[in-house]
Automatic annotation (TrEMBL):
Name by which UniProt lists this protein: Citrate synthase
InterPro entries registered for this protein in UniProt: 2-MeCitrate/Citrate_synth_II (IPR011278), Citrate_synth-like_lrg_a-sub (IPR016142), Citrate_synth-like_sm_a-sub (IPR016143), Citrate_synthase (IPR002020), Citrate_synthase_AS (IPR019810), Citrate_synthase_bac-typ (IPR024176), Citrate_synthase_sf (IPR036969)
Source species, domain of life: Bacteria
One cellular-component annotation, GO: cytosol
């Protein structure tokens, strides 16, 4: 009789809508479409402070004063060069390996070669986080260059983080407008509460594993097209559609095939991603700088048409994909750029998890075959 059967626990598929812990790092508020980093609205930080200052804020809880910033900048600039072993490992990886595989492997090597690898004190973990932060731009820049048959470019310590990132990639002093737009993208990508990759990092940390392992796992989670991989997928969509005029028929076919349109939709924001307006301004700046109004026409046509038909809004990956394309990055380097930024959020969460740890181990409800007997076998002669 139904009443006598034990009540089935409710399943929260994908943990949708389930709060699993507190965090003081960022507040995602879907009701007001807003995102706060340690209390500051992210759109107010973008353009007002540098990515380095935002990184410091996310790790330390406060913006740096002049002395703290100078000390951090000095540390970051001293750890920018590509380690020779990391370079050797990258050189051994086939070009068929996705750049996310390359940065995941590089992260593992960097972490294992960290001078404080055996020290898991909070201070050492923070320095490891800062060394990964400093090292990732060289990995992305070198990987893009080697795929184009170009030599490594050594970092310049007279440039800020974003200007140096672009310099190491393109071997020319970047223009201020481009640096500013890129810096804004790095600020916007840095942190977003318990997204899939950050949660992955927290799960790994919850077993008291090390920071390097948690970052490597997080990179794996970010790679998927439902998460960070969507910024690359947006460019593939743009290439498939071609021009603004082709959006209508393309969308008819895509929706008939029940395809997901990458760069749209979000688990938490259902009425638009808080970061999109700020990133769209940066994209506008790049479109004007490179004189590419066609990019904006296609961007607007697809966004307007998809919102009108499905009521699903763009997420941050939608404007950042074409922005990175205009700057000159190869499409498959877009998600590694996201890694270079999000390593800040991941490591802030790793340290927060450690400081107030509980092993993350949810329950499952078994729905396989009922208990049964192992079949008897004839004894083997
Ligand atoms: C930085 C970031 O990681 S932001 C996210 C980047 N990811 C993408 O852009 C990938 C495309 N988007 C998606 O796949 C989803 O919107 C996700 C994974 C981001 C969020 O997914 P969920 O919260 O699980 O929403 P869910 O997938 O249940 O969507 C609800 C409905 O909207 C539809 N939907 C959501 N996003 C899209 C989309 N981009 N294209 C087409 N349909 C969509 C779903 O098919 C579903 O329809 P149904 O109710 O008829 O089945
Ligand atoms: O929050 C999420 O689920 C995905 C996202 O936008 C991010 O990680 O920046």
């Amino acid at each position: 009789m139904a009443e006598q059967q034990a009540a089935q626990p409710e399943i929260y598929k994908g943990l949708a809508g389930v709060p699993v812990d507190y965090t003081a790092i960022s507040k995602v508020d879907p009701a007001s479409n807003s995102l706060l980093y340690r209390g500051y609205p992210v759109q107010d930080l973008a353009g007002a402070v540098t990515f380095e200052e935002v990184a410091y804020l996310l790790w330390h809880g406060e913006l740096p004063d002049d002395e703290q910033l100078a000390e951090f900048e000095q540390f970051e600039r001293a750890h920018r060069a590509l380690d020779h072993v990391v370079k050797k490992v990258i050189d051994e990886l086939p070009l068929t390996a996705h750049p996310m595989d390359v940065i995941r492997t590089a992260a593992s090597v960097i972490a294992a070669r960290d001078p404080e690898v055996a020290d898991d004190s909070a201070d050492a973990e923070l320095r490891k986080a800062k060394r990964l932060f400093a090292a990732f731009p060289a990995v992305v820049a070198y990987d893009q260059r080697r795929r184009r048959g170009l030599e490594l470019v050594e970092p310049r310590d007279d440039l800020g983080y974003s200007a140096n990132f672009l310099f190491m990639t393109f071997d020319e002093a970047p223009e201020l407008e481009v640096v500013d737009a890129f810096d804004v993208s790095m600020i916007l990508y840095a942190e977003h509460s318990f997204n899939a990759s950050t949660f992955t990092a927290r799960v790994i940390t919850s077993t008291l594993s090390d920071l390097g392992s948690a970052v490597v796992g997080a990179i794996g989670a970010l790679k998927g097209p439902l998460h960070g991989g969507a910024n690359e997928a947006v460019m593939h969509t743009f290439a498939e559609i071609g021009t603004a005029e082709a959006v209508g028929p393309w969308l008819d076919a895509a929706l008939a095939e029940k395809r997901k349109i990458m760069g749209f939709g979000h688990r938490v924001y259902k009425h638009g991603d808080s970061r999109v307006p700020t990133m769209k301004l940066a994209l506008d700046q790049l479109v004007a700088h490179y004189d590419r109004p066609d990019v904006l026409d296609l961007y607007d046509a697809l966004a307007n048409e998809f919102i009108a038909r499905k009521g699903i809004y763009p997420n941050l990956d939608y404007p950042s994909g074409p922005a990175y394309n205009l700057i000159g990055f190869d499409t498959d380097q877009f998600t590694p750029i996201f890694v270079a930024s999000r390593v800040v959020g991941w490591t802030a969460h790793i340290m927060e998890q450690r400081a107030s740890n509980a092993l993350i181990r949810p329950l499952s409800v078994y729905d396989g075959v009922e208990r049964r007997e192992v079949p008897a076998r004839e004894p083997v002669e």
